[in-house]
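Task card 7
Instruction: Convert sequence to structure tokens.
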Amino acid sequence: MWGDGGVSWGLPAEPTAEHARLAESPGPGSPWRQWGPYLAGRQWGTVREDYTADGDAWSAFPFEHSHARAYRWGEDGLGGICDRFGFLNFSVGLWNRKDPILKERLYGLTNGQGNHGEDVKEYWWAVDGTPTHSWMQWMYRYPQAEYPYQQLREENARRGRDEREYELGDTGVLDGNRFFDVMVTYAKASPDDICISIRATNHGPDAAPLDLVPQIWLRNTWAWGRDPRRGHMNQLLPPTLAVGGMEALEVQHGSLGSYYLAAEGSPVLLFCDNETNAVSLFGAERNVSPYPKDAINQRIVHGDAHLVNPFDEGTKAAVWYSFDSVAPGHSVTVKLRLSRQMPESGTFGASYDAVMKARRREADEFYARVVHPEMDKADRHVARRAYAGLLWGKQLYRYDVEQWLEGDPGSALPAPAARQAKGARNTTWRQVSLADVISMPDEWEYPWFAAWDTAFHAIPLAHVDPDFAKEQLVLMCREWAMHPNGQLPAYEWEFGDVNPPVHAWAAWHVYRIDGYRDREFLIRVFTKLLLNFSWWVNRKDSTGSNIFEGGFLGMDNIGLFDRSAPLPPGFRLEQSDATSWMAFYCQQMFKIALELSRYDKAWDDTATKFLEHFLAIARSMTSFGSHEVSLWDEEDGFFYDVLVGPDGSAQPMRVPSMVGLLPILGATEVPSWINEECPDVTARLRWLQRRRPELVGPLLFAKGPGERRMLLSLLDQDRLRRILERMFDPGQFLSPYGIRSMSQAVRSGVTTVIDGRSASIEYEPGESRTGLFGGNSNWRGPVWFPVNVLLADKLRTYGRHFGDTFTIEIPTGSGNHCTLQDAADVIDRGLVALFRPVNGKRPADGDRIEASDDPLWAEHPTFSEFFDGDTGEGLGATHQTGWTALVAHLLNPRLPPDPRQRGWA
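Output:
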């Protein structure tokens, strides 16, 4: 679905309204992008809010503090929005008259509380959205019974790693559909005029009370001793508020200016300050403000009004709608409007309704153009939900590491000296100073970016918002993110960890999806990646042998031991996957350089540099490593990591895992047009063929109609076939839902003695049974979307080169011979099958409550972090419409026509 360009169709003569807004809004500072779903789903428990000596972020700022303690670096809320700098925030609060606290933010277990690592314990869905956020819908499922916080903690603490997680749906509080579905809708009348609707529907059999408590507040930027300015809110009263039928408040902020929040009807407005209740949390003698952050909770839940500001002003406010009884099947709706305009008689009514209807219609028109018209209804629904999840995953990420390390002069919790000790978290990343909207993998379990995730997000994002996709790839390379030595930041828990180098691949595909037109983007990202490539060569090839190390490389617990942990003195792990990733990286940089060379011959030399570097890596990987021990095991027909000891001895780590499949990624076509358009590259290649024939073995040739095809490949046909025989063997890597990350042939385990100590590993199709990397992900058997997509991509590359002359059996041993293009389709169909119902159930939903045949559950697909290698059940983060949103691309792989007619595949 990738290499052949997928499907294309004619574009309409006139752009849709949303496409026109996108054309007006290319950059992050554009007016239509000023407001969006940038408010985090969780700010508590993040590294940014941790000012402890031991670095235990989960304990430093627990959920129990979140309703009463001011955040330093961000804010969070339910279905919320904020401006792109996070100064002014809006979200939804709820109370069912039974919960001990207002439901203001998402709840989940911390790493130590969950039996499989951190785990969200809520149900919500990103329902719809457009790239400029002119239209957004988000839904939360709120129990009518008391939320079982203690039960969830205690039962998961009791369970071991060999048991399933205990979820909210298992507690019984949702039985009989005793819940409210709360739909939050935003529609922009203009860039700074936002119509807001909150509709709560009682799906239970009995009438139930509900309090809807929308909240608006200013991020606390003044309490830390660095910026004394603060904004202000106050209620509007007659004669300032000159119309009836609503309540309203005014917001003044030094950067944003004036905003007004109007609320239809007669709600109660409550005011306080976004300040910590230090008296309640820490036993302090007094609070900075007598009206702290949790005043609204105290007033509504406990009936205690003494913390609410009696003068109806502050830096945080709530609009309190109280419904004593919502009948079964009935809904209640409240309307609000956030605008720069003073509320007037037309704030609600016909004009408000017209905006809502227009933006909904325009969203439908936008997706009618984005999504292929022949896609069936079920697939279209999954694709649109995937796009919605990606767009709602755009979160504001603020983190100045220099300030974080030093602490704030006005903070009650200054950073301890241990924060800056040598080797402490992120101490060598002081240049990181981010205040950007970033595509997050998941708004709760990953409210922080991960570098390689971001690259994968860019592919489906490019279908709906190519400018944002490109900006994300460039952002990771900007000087306030990239290390001065060229390393990309991995993730906030340890920026210095190493993610696979996939940005060049993503940049190339975004360039293609965007119509092969934005060479300026290619140049910007390519020149930055030159620095990153040099970092890999200088830091991760310690012997200069072109065999690379890299640590865990995003694959957490795939090895016999923690590959990111220091090895015993003198030992070094030469990695099959690290070396494959670097070969892959070389090829993608070569491809981009060739493209740029077509328009500027100055890039020719760069193209030849990456060509020769790939050839050197290929020679080392496919023959011998640094100590004359090959990563290729001829007897097994597979690649393995090799542990090199201080005495020069080398020991293969014979674990049949994804690291041995990744050499497939080292394949890219050398287009025939280089003979005419890149003569310097052609001349160098011919020189190598004459003078260094031993280097050009990885250059394969095949004849096609009217041309001779060339392919750069880490694998010759024999090795490729042997690896694919294992990959497509159902008894090993092939599952019904893609390629497993470890062969199931090792269900009984593999044991190896390393430096006198025994180490074991076995196939685990589902949740991890070890605590390695927190125990909240597993690469010992489950199916992972990103590497599957890459494998399919490269099988198509091989397929275009070999055509019908190279076939394999799928499944292995079946006698059913397939081309490599067909093999790529097998992988893609397996991934898509996760979301296609079988007997009314999506395999990805497993046996969870989401698998219910009740339409209230069945209409909501979930996008999980990874999937059980046997059953396909979604595991890990359950809202990861980050890289799992690649399913939208597999379903909808539209590419525009190549304007050059002789382009790449």
